[in-house]
Amino acid sequence: MKTLLRTLAAGALIAGLALTAAASAQDYPTKPVTVVVPFSAGGPTDTVARLIAEVMSKDLGQQVVVQNVGGAGGTLGAGQVATAPNDGYTLLVHHIGMSTAPTLYRSLPYNPETDFAPIGLVTAVPMTLVARKGFEPNTLADLTAYIKANGENVTYAHAGIGSASQLCGMLLMDALDAPMTTVPYQGAGPAMTDIIGGQVDMICDQSTNTTSQIKAGEVKAYAVTSPERLANFPDLPTTAEGGLDQVQVTVWHGLYAPAGTDAAIISRLEAALQTALADATVISRFAELGTTPVTAAEATPDALSKQLSSQIVLWRGIIEAAGVYAD
Ligand code: ASP
After folding, report:
1. Does the pTM exceed 0.70?
2. How many whole angstroms from 7 Cα to the centroid of ligand 1?
3. pLDDT tens, 7-51?
4. Which of 139, 175, 180, 309 is the most buried (most CB within 10 A)?
5. Which amino acid residue places its CA nearest to atom 9 of ligand 1?
6. pLDDT for 295-321, tens place per residue?
7. Burial class (CB in 10 A: 0-12, 13-18, 19+), 301
8. What is the mean pLDDT of residues 105-127?
């Protein structure tokens, strides 16, 4: 009898917990939502996250607060979200680094495919090769010749191993067979400050972090890493046009929750993300920064999950061929 009562009590407790979870998913969100950006403030991932967070806040009726957790090429912030409570109140905006980290970091403390619940893709951003104003080369041809001649005397800034800027630099050095001296930062924001200040020579960084600086003449631009030229800079050649076919990177961003987050919460966040990506201000701001939001069909858990899996396979091949690891 006692055992039966205990079983019934346990059953009631489980049913109660399930009801509470369902109710909290229905009411979600009832308090501010934190979006972790695994790079410093003022960089390209931060810019994208803040733009969508503003509209998502309005849509969800709660503040969506961006928290910058930079370090270790984005793996520190991502690791923090992997172990956060899966209640929908801690999310992650990360980029292509989600797919490169499992190969670059042999002791990565999380699995991007099993420790996260994908919500949707956000945008895909081309990169640009830029340098400090006073840097000697003036054209892409000058730049490649200069790097070949000066190699380690050239300083190359990046946002840590696993960041897009590091990947792009790795492809460039590989293509030119000329290692530069790399200078890691916690994000491309502070790296750009040092390029503008002339403390470091160059970076390959997303158009979302370089467009205004190129327009203002604060940095010199040499090329864009996408297959097409940019509408904002029609005179800027593509890397392929300059004979650097291997230096092609488009940085895709995704929104994630910790694995096991209630499906109803994921659907609510997916809807808020889609609202943000269809917002006129977001679209025009993205265009000014040389990018476009993804379509509604891509801002889905399924599309992000497929993108992540296929990019893990793609980058594994490239990284293993280059033989570059972070640990
Ligand atoms: N996305 C940049 C990079 O990977 C880092 C950042 O967003 O600050 O280089």
Report:
1. yes
2. 53
3. 545 555 445 545 455 556 789 999 999 999 999 999 999 999 999
4. 180
5. 165
6. 999 999 999 999 999 999 999 998 888
7. buried
8. 96
Helices marked H in the chain — which ranges?
2-27, 44-60, 75-82, 97-104, 140-150, 164-176, 188-197, 207-215, 263-277, 280-288, 301-322
Binding site membership of 252 for ligand 1 (Cβ less than 6 Å): no
Distance 290 CA to ligand 1 centre (A): 16
**DSSP-derived secondary structure letter, 287:** H
Q: Is the CB of 43 under 6 A from ligand 1?
A: yes
Query: Which residue's structure tokens are 């980058």?
Result: 315
For 89-104, what is the mean pLDDT? Answer: 96
* Helix spans in 216-300 (H): 263-277, 280-288
Q: Is the pLDDT of residue 204 over 80?
A: yes
> What is the pLDDT at residue 196?
97
pLDDT of residue 161 exceeding 90, the answer is no
For the Cβ of 44 lying below 6 angstroms from any atom of ligand 1, the answer is: yes
Q: Containing H/E element for 125?
A: strand 116-132
Domains observed in the chain: 31-125+251-322 (3.40.190.150), 126-242 (3.40.190.10)
Asked whether 192 lines ligand 1 (CB < 6 A), one says no
For residue 23, how far is its CA from the centre of ligand 1 (angstroms)? 38
**Average pLDDT over every residue of 120-135:** 97
Say if ligand 1 is within 6 A of residue 213 CB.
no
* Shortest-distance atom of ligand 1 to CA 70: 8
Mean per-residue pLDDT, 236-258 = 95
Distance 12 CA to ligand 1 centre (A): 49
| Distance, CA of 214 to CA of 90 (rounded, Å) | 35
Q: Which atom of ligand 1 is nearest to the CA of 45?
A: 7
